[in-house]
Amino acid sequence: MANESRPCPCDPGDRFDYGGCGQEVQVGHIKAYVCKPSASTDKAVIVIHDIFGWQLPNTRYMADMLTANGYIAICPDFFVGQEAWKSSNDWAAFNDWVKSRDAGKIDKEVDVVLKYLKDQCGVKKIGVIGFCWGGAAVQHLMLKNTHLKTGVSLYGVIRHFDDKHSLLHPTFFIFGEKDDIIPLEQVTLLEQKLKQNCKVDYEVKIYPGQTHGFVHRKREDINPQDKPYIEEGRKDMINWLNKYL
Asked: Which of 24, 57, 85, 125 is in Cβ range 3.0-4.6 Å of 51 for a Cys bridge?
């Protein structure tokens, strides 16, 4: 990887001072943050958090943004009660930490969330978005879960799926040009493999000058030069969901 002493560049960085508009609920064996629009809808988006977990204010901000665009948004605790990563943790321990939190082993939790959305919220169409660790989880779900309609993977760690590209549903991949953990060669290879193997609609987009986490972590007021790309990434995500949900 790019930097063995710091194997993942995720950082709360400009952590939002944000409380959230939704509420925490119990969904089967896991907890989840849920936000619902004022008007009734049968469309929902599952939000898959990054290594900083389901309670990160930035991620809840993104869930609420989805709700502002008319979707029920749910951000479950896919670590199932295990501690989220903290920026004060020793990065030397990261690889061991993440081994017990496999982005490709969340199917049991997703099934519980799907049942909740259908039974408790009357949802009929469900999409999924995810950031970093959650972006990898989105790719995993797009390869196998028939109940989802579409997905958006934001800077997902694609090296986990080097040989798996036969997506079942339309998928949008968002990457930053200057991402330390996802080199552009990996993105190019992903595009080649998708072109060869993928039979559904997909898009891979690279945002100039952007680093890992730019869509949900940078603060526009601190990084004015990045503001257009942050806004573009968020708009593209919403437009993709609107198109396929």
From this structure: 85
- Do residues 139 and 158 lie in contact, with contact meaning Cβ atoms separated by under 8 Å? yes
CATH code linked to domain 23-85+93-244:
3.40.50.1820
Which amino acid makes up residue 229? Y
> Two tokens at 229?
């790309």
Q: Catalytic residue positions?
A: 132, 179, 212
Question: How many residues does the structure list for the chain?
Answer: 245
pLDDT by 10-residue block (mean), the chain, 245 residues: 42 62 96 96 98 94 96 98 92 92 96 98 98 95 96 87 81 95 92 92 96 83 83 97 98
d(CA 171, CA 27): 26
Rg over alpha carbons for the chain, rounded to the nearest Å, is 17
Report helix, strand or coil for 55.
Answer: coil
Q: Residue 131: CB partners within 8 Å, gap ≥ 6?
A: 48, 49, 50, 59, 62, 154, 155, 213, 215, 216
- pLDDT the model gives residue 9: 47
